[in-house]
Specification:
With about 450 residues, the chain is of the alpha/beta class. The chain is built from 14 helices and 17 strands.
């Protein structure tokens, strides 16, 4: 079958390649699921099998956004415990989360994915770690929702085996056994992980956090991941309370604990990493351990400001994360570009903390690097997968901002005129093509109400 091409012309382009190459007016040619060419001016003449030609005047083309940390199930518990810190928030919500089932997980995944995709996310991930007994095939439901939405997806198959009776936070009936968690995780990898270059679904091993997981699950989880050749993900150094917990329980801080359990390395990324000292950052840089920076969630839960400028200066891989929508109710990653920049400017580096292009890099190439897919996605370069977004900057909200990258990052959220994933349109003119947004809104509302009734009667 002949190669089919999509041509986008007359748009500003931020490639986010190694040289931060940009074009004031340029073109992108997509051939099937790959980027064939990117450059200044019009596309090459006499291209064959052009099935679509798009005039991008007034638009900015960028790589698709890459989300590196999320909890989809929380979509149906948004707006609760709004004045709590992390530990109090977890205590307040775990009893409700522990009652989710397969239809709830599916609807919540649909809502989370739809909100991200319509805002420019082309690669999503979900750290799902709540598996109540008898709740059904939660991993399968989440993966099915991602497949239907049409985005590239990493399922971080989480687990918890330290419940209230062991000094943890989750209710006893919401956790798995050590052997059960490991077996179920391995089964998920075997059934769903695709290691190929253009994979749409991948799986990572992801015990939840030091305060909800036994040391043995951390160690054996790392061994499992490396035996299977998949990545590792968990929460790390999110709050001061977590650091105190680790010192009391393990006699060391979180980073030293992670290193003692095999959880530092180029195949590992951690969510949050707010409370990191110089030696912690040096350890992450030395080992290539990645960070999912979640600025809105960190602010919502009063966790603090992560030292992102220092991490980047040290060479730590850093991407952006929405985090669960019970701690970031908007559920959109493109707002995190702006929030990462603004919140980090409240820290020690002030106005020199991040600029617009650094923020865009965090949300694109940085995320691809954290997920281990930097050779495939995250920048607009010939040979990479055709995951890209065409942002409409020809609007009242952006009309007087001359620089398009500044308009995208500093300005109001820009509408998505076109989003391609693997060369296929997923969003056009701000609407999803793959799923019914209105139907998803109805189903997520119904499942949220059902969960609330079940939790209230428990």
């Amino acid at each position: 079958m002949a190669v089919q091409r999509i041509v986008i012309e007359n748009c500003a382009i931020a490639t986010v390649d190694a040289d931060d190459t940009e074009y004031a007016s340029g073109h992108v040619v997509v051939a099937d699921n790959r980027i064939e060419s990117v450059g200044a001016g019009k596309a090459p003449a006499n291209l064959e099998n052009v099935v679509r030609r798009i005039d991008g005047t007034g638009h900015l083309a960028t790589p698709g956004l890459v989300n590196t940390h999320h909890h989809f199930y929380q979509w149906i518990t948004r707006g609760l415990a709004t004045d709590h810190n992390l530990f109090d928030w977890l205590v307040a919500l775990y009893p409700t989360w522990a009652r989710i089932d397969e239809p709830m997980a599916y609807a919540a995944a649909q809502g989370s994915l739809a909100m991200m995709a319509r805002g420019g996310v082309t690669t999503a991930m979900d750290h799902h770690y709540v598996f109540p007994q008898g709740s059904g095939d939660l991993s399968g439901a989440i993966i099915r929702a991602a497949r239907e939405t049409g985005v590239r997806f990493t399922l971080a198959r989480g687990s918890m085996d330290r419940s209230e009776k062991d000094g943890g936070l989750p209710p006893d009936f919401a956790v798995e056994t050590l052997d059960g968690a490991l077996a179920a995780t391995e089964q998920t990898v075997d059934e769903h992980h695709d290691p190929s270059f253009d994979a749409m679904t991948q799986v990572a091993v992801a015990p939840c956090s030091p305060f909800s997981v036994s040391t043995e699950l951390m160690k054996q989880g790392a061994e499992l991941a490396r035996r299977k050749g998949v990545r590792l993900h968990t929460h790390g150094s999110e709050t001061v309370e977590e650091e105190q917990f680790c010192k009391e329980l393990f006699g060391m801080g979180p980073t030293d604990y992670f290193e003692s359990t095999g959880w530092l390395g180029e195949d590992v990324w951690m969510a949050h990493c707010v409370h990191m000292n110089d030696s912690d950052i040096a350890a992450f840089a030395r080992t290539g351990t990645g960070v999912a920076h979640c600025p809105s969630s960190n602010a919502r839960l009063a966790a603090g400001i992560a030292r992102v400028p220092d991490m980047l200066a040290a060479g730590v891989p850093v991407g952006l994360g929405v985090d669960g929508t019970a701690s970031n109710e908007s559920g959109e990653l493109h707002t995190e570009l702006r929030n990462a920049l603004l919140i980090n400017r409240l820290g020690a580096h002030r106005e020199a903390a991040l600029n617009a292009r650094q923020a865009l890099r965090l949300g694109t190439f940085g995320g691809a690097r954290v997920l281990g897919r930097a050779s495939q996605i995250g920048s607009l370069e010939a040979g990479k997968l055709a995951d890209l977004v065409l942002w409409n900057l020809d609007t009242l909200a952006h009309a007087s901002i001359a620089d398009p990258v500044t308009a995208l990052v500093f300005g109001a959220a820009a509408p998505v005129t076109l989003s391609l994933v693997n060369g296929r349109p997923v969003v056009e003119d701000g609407r999803l093509l793959t799923v019914d947004e209105d139907a998803i809104a109805r189903s997520t509302r119904a499942e949220a109400q059902r969960l609330a009734r079940i939790a209230a009667g428990a």
